[in-house]
Amino acid sequence: MNSPIHLSPWDLFMLSIHYIQKGHLYQKRTPDFHIAEFLRRLNHVLSLTLSHFYPLVCRLVTSESPHEDGSYVVSLECVNSPGARLIHAAPSVELLERSINDKFSFNPAGKIALYPSKKIIGCRLVTNNRGRMNPPLHPDYFGNLINPMRTSTAVGELLGNDLGWAVWRLHEAVVGHIDEKIRGILSSWLEALVVYQMEQVFDTDSVMMGSSPNLEGMPLPGR
Question: Where are the domains of the chain?
Fold first, then answer.
């Protein structure tokens, strides 16, 4: 593909956000497992996959705007891209176990109880806007289209209610995230162009959840 791929506003204001990193846990290796053969097959499968999703091997390019107004254009260029690299790294078992234990032994209720009762805390839900648009976007749209919705409350209010109350607050935020609100977010961004910084998306007083199937498309009731 010789022409550059221009980014949508949803891609542009997320430019400074780090790449999504996810881990996959597999079954314990069998005696006949060979890492070299596994990597060879993995590399082959990824190559086949990227032939269908070629923008993932493109490179970001910044150039001056043709309007000569001092602005710049960020786009994807696939012609001179060296492709995607497969990097094999082997962490120690101790490091992996410590990372998993730290991730799943966190007690949010205990931490919240240490905060002042009037302190505002929140929960951010990363939602896919594709199914919420009216009319819906074309299924082949490959760009970014997510929003982190933040529901906030005071510590005392959260601890003074039961779990159902908290779930309902999140449910209201999901149900209210509709076409009109999404377009309003876009309109506000177009009036004051900005690239979001990490501290605007993540903060130490919020819990963020993403990649939930219940946040894909239209909202479902909390349960």
Answer: 1-19+32-82, 108-215
State the pLDDT confidence band at 120, using cuts at 50, 70 and 90. very high
SS3 30: coil
Q: Where are the alpha helices (DSSP H) in the chain?
A: 9-12, 35-52, 93-104, 108-112, 155-159, 163-175, 179-191, 198-201
On the question of a cis peptide bond just before residue 135, with omega within 30 degrees of 0, the verdict is: yes
Q: For domain 108-215, say whether CATH 3.40.50.300 is its number.
A: no
- According to the model, what pLDDT value does residue 92 have? 67
Phi, psi at 94, each rounded to 5°: -65, -40
Average pLDDT value for residue range 72-96: 79
Task: Please state, rounded to an integer, the average pLDDT across all residues of the chain.
Answer: 81
